[in-house]
Amino acid sequence: MEQLLQHLRNLSFTEMEAKIMVELAGKGPSSGYEVAKGLGVSRSNVYAALQRLSQHGFLRRSAGEPVRYSMLKPEELTQMISGQVKESLSFIEMRMPRVEPDQQPFYSVEGDRNVMETLTRELERAEHEIVVDVWREEASLVRHGLEEAEQRGVKLLWSCLGADEAVSRLLPWPSLGQEERGARPGRRFSFVIDRRWCMLGMRGEDCTTQGLVTEHPVMVELLLHHFTQEMVLFELEQDIGEELTERYGPRYERIYRKYVGPDSAQAEEQKKLTQQKDA
C-alpha cells in the first residue's frame, strides 16, 4: 500500500489525494462522508481534495444527492497522466529559453553509474555513426546499447583491447622529471557519436570512474585522429607484418621511442638544464 501511495505522490498527487484515490479504487463509488469515515480524517479536507480530483478528470462524479465519486480504471488513469506528462515535456522542450554558448563547454562526469547513464543516453540518440575505443571490460558494459544502435542502422567503428594484448600501438608518453609510476590506475576509453559528441575517460578497479564530455569540435577531431592512427597501424601490421619486421627489425619500436620514449624525455630535461646553466 505504501509503495502505491509513494508512486502517486511521485506523480504530484498530495498525500490526501493519493489516499482518496486508493480508497475509492478499493471500495467503489462513495460519498464524501463515506470516504472521510473510511480514512478517519476530517470531511472538509476530503471534500476539497475530491473537488480538485474531479475537476482534473481523475474521478467520476455522479449527479444527485448525495454526490458519489468513483475512480477511473487503472489503465484510463495512467493513460491520462501519461498524455499530460508528454504534453508538458513537449511544451517545455519547445518553449524553454535557450542560451547558446559561444564555445561548446567541457564538463566532467564522475562515478560508474553517472558515466554509464550519460553514455547510454547518447548511444540511444545516435543517428549515423559511433566510434568506440575501449578495453574488453568496458565493451561488455555498452554491448547492448551498441547492438541496438546497429539495429537502427547506425554505423559502428570500434577498437577493443584486452589484458592479454599490447596496451596500445601508440606508446604512452612518460612523465617529465618524475619517477616511473608503474601500472596505470585505470583503463582509458573514448566514444565519438555522430562526430559531434564525445566522451574521454578512465575506469578501473582501483580508481574512480571519470569521463570528460564535450561537443567541442577540436576534441572530437583529436579523438577521431587518434582512432584512425591506431586502426591504420593495425591494418598495416596485419598486411605487411613479416616484411615490416624484416625491414625494420628492432628499429620499428625505436621509431616511436625517438619521440615519446624515455630517451626523448631525458633529452628534453637535459635541454632545460643546459638552458638554466647558460642563463
TrEMBL record:
Domain named Transcription regulator TrmB N-terminal: residues? 8-75
Q: Which Gene3D superfamilies match?
A: Winged helix-like DNA-binding domain superfamily/Winged helix DNA-binding domain (1.10.10.10)
Q: Which InterPro entries match?
A: TrmB-like, Tscrpt_reg_TrmB_N, WH-like_DNA-bd_sf, WH_DNA-bd_sf
Instruction: Name it.
Output: Helix-turn-helix domain-containing protein
Task: Give the species.
Answer: Paenibacillus dokdonensis
